[in-house]
Amino acid sequence: MEWKVFRNTRLMAGKTFFRRIVGDTDFNRVLGFDPQRKRSSTQRLFAKAFWFWPRIEDARGWAAASTGTRWNPEQYLHTHRTLLIDKVLDYTRPTDFLMELGCNCGSDMAQLYGEGYRNLCGVDASGAALDLFSYEYPQVFHVADIRQDLFQRYLMNFATNAVDYVYSNGATIELVHPSFPIVSEICRVARSGVFLDLSEHHQGYPRDYVAQFRKGGFDLTYSNKAEFPEKKSHIFVFTRKGLEAREL
After folding, report:
1. Taking Cα atoms as reference points, which of 248, 125, 70, 103 lies closest to residue 170?
2. What is the per-residue pLDDT across 3-16, written as a single tens digit (0 to 9) for each?
3. Which domains, and CATH codes, for the chain?
4. Distance between terminal CA atoms of the chain?
5. Closest Cα to residue 63, out of 22, 34, 23, 20?
């Protein structure tokens, strides 16, 4: 295992330490809710000196995403069903409670809504993306519980086993700095399973995701990594240990 993968997987600080360093004022600053507040010089110094120091600055670009920027929300609008959503439909039922991390403009969630899913919640850092979501898919936006927040605070505010399944499509959790235990928080919140389109080594912070999910009580049920090794991202399905995979 290369050093970066080992470091990001095995040498992460815990959630308690993260919460001591990063508070609501920091989240609101990065989200643009409190634009006048600046990151303290002490925080900048520690983050520069210690790789494990809690930080959320990586989300600033996503929070500011709007028309004309690198992560313009319009580019994520689509009407086709992705392979990730195909797998979600394979393993879940319309009565299940599903959470989307990085729902952006709502195209994937709209696919589930069209299949009869109504117990839906999601989060995205971009206010512009959520405005587009409400415009393009008003019925879905009205039915689902959609929040503008960072993954870290959003997950921490959920109770254990709060939803049946968590899903996320493309370069989302990979961009979360390893000072926050994103995988263990997903495992805590998801009762039954997790569906991810992961770019393990080409985006953000590389980790041994399979090992982290296994530690969190989830087995790898499906992956197309061996079938398409040349692709930069792959589909991963994790189900809680002891739970029968439910193919419909």
Report:
1. 103
2. 999 999 998 889 99
3. 1-248 (3.40.50.150)
4. 37
5. 34
